[in-house]
Amino acid sequence: MIFWQALTPVHPGTGQDSSSVIDLPVAREAATGFPVIPASSLKGVLRDGRDDEQSNRLFGSLENAAELTLTDARLLLLPVRSYAGTFAFLTCPLVLERLKRDQKALGLPELKAPIPNPGQTEALVPKNTQIVHANQVILEDIDLSATVGGAEALAQELGQLVFGAESSYFVGRFALVSNEVFDYFCEMGLEVIARVRLENESKTVANGALWYEEAIPAETVFSSFAIGNGFEELNRPYIQIGGQASVGRGLLRRLGGE
Amino acid sequence: MSQTRSQKDMQQALELVSSLERADPEVKRIYGGLCHSFPVMVLQSGLCQAVAFSADKASGDGKRAQAHQHLLEHLGEMLGVRGKLLEALQSAPTPLYMHHTRRVLEAWVYFKRFAVSVLEVQAGEDHEK
Question: Looking at residues A150-176, what average pLDDT do you find?
Fold first, then answer.
């Protein structure tokens, strides 16, 4: 299992989408609507454009199936602006149950901490939290009542699993929220960037040349898994993924994992 | 057989946007621009702030104020909120507020489309300050 953290906003694009108010939205899972980095994007980057015999064997070719299997990088922790503590790392029971299911499928040790179900207006946080103000976790324009200590075991275990030595950076900002609240921020908490094309002569916006792009924010953590052993391509500490590399999008670092 | 939510949204958006087809050209242009920019404002600042911005702009008699008045009326119709929209949003419990936000974004896809096809206003034609 591999964890990836976005160091800059990521745009795994889908092209134009007529079902969104955003012209260029990010890829999302069909069933949940959570942002996702498709496995094909990860595979393309790890392959790095190589077409030699070894890469054909590992990543596949027209003649051969790949030896290495990669999955989509799923959302694990979503950073959301917080009144206290600058930002919060959010996750929800559904995401953690799926992580456990993946761990079981791969034969890895499963999360041991219980996964409580927060109420729709509640955020469960560990004891050493930085994101509580006046008994509330205030996220964007949503105020949730804080249950301090309600996610102690989860925060500690996830912190070690994903962030290792940097665990305290995560624990102080961790909040477990309901599936509905998480879903809401997956829709509302992403970056929206206005882009324009200027007329050469006047340097004003060309007619109809204003569009909006969506990006998964920096700090987001994804989980994915790779099936197969001994592939040095997987050991890269940093990768660039998705569109708009020239404007700094898509830089990911590898975290923890087994 | 009942209709899908999407069908109902499309029908309602078409009726509301079309009601401005013969409006003053400047009001129509500003309203059409708002159809493009309003959902982005909701995503960036939240529904309450976006509606408060519009309510502020709607006070007065100018053509921009008229366009914002239409926008607020249409939002209220779409959300099924009777009376003052901003007050209703401010007093809504969190789950209802989240629901309203998501309904606006879902339905607004059609307002954007009809701003182009019915009112013939492209994104960026109205430069709101």
Answer: 96
